[in-house]
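Private note to self, pasted from the team thread so I don't lose it. Backbone tokens:
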């Protein structure tokens, strides 16, 4: 009986320790596969239209953080937007590509709600010159985005 209780409680405890609710970690496993559409990044986050204008890559420890905004900005003055797409990338480099899973995923973020909808269904594709990135990220409850967006590499400034 105690073992069943622990097995049932552990996922929720882990989510709580990470600052997420059980709703935050729900995601779809349905991805159409194939390459990301070669068109401007757009979609919905929490029912609101989202169109990516700029992606910024910054260092975060040994990893890189890719943040996609729906407004223009610079490395020195990133936009303070309500909606964002957040991705921690191990080994950021031109031509990097991979499918999302439970260890490599995207977060559709809503600032005012502190909402973190995790997408384990999707794909990341960095262009050969590293100046644009294609993203496909889908979640059950917070929508999804797909397309390409220009990248500012803020790790070198």
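Design output:
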């Amino acid at each position: 009986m105690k073992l069943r209780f622990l097995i049932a409680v552990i996922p929720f405890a882990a989510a709580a320790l990470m600052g997420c609710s059980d709703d935050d970690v729900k995601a779809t496993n349905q991805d159409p596969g194939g390459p990301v559409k070669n068109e401007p990044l757009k979609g919905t986050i929490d029912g609101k239209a989202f169109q990516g204008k700029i992606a910024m890559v910054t260092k975060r420890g040994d990893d890189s953080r890719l943040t996609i905004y729906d407004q223009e900005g610079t490395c020195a003055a990133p936009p303070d937007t309500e909606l964002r797409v957040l991705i921690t990338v191990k080994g950021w480099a031109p031509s990097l590509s991979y499918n999302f899973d439970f260890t490599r995923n995207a977060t559709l973020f809503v600032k005012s709600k502190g909402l973190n909808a995790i997408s384990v269904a999707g794909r990341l594709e960095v262009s050969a010159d590293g100046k644009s990135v294609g993203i496909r990220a889908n979640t059950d409850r917070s929508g999804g985005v797909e397309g390409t967006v220009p990248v500012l590499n803020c790790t070198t400034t």
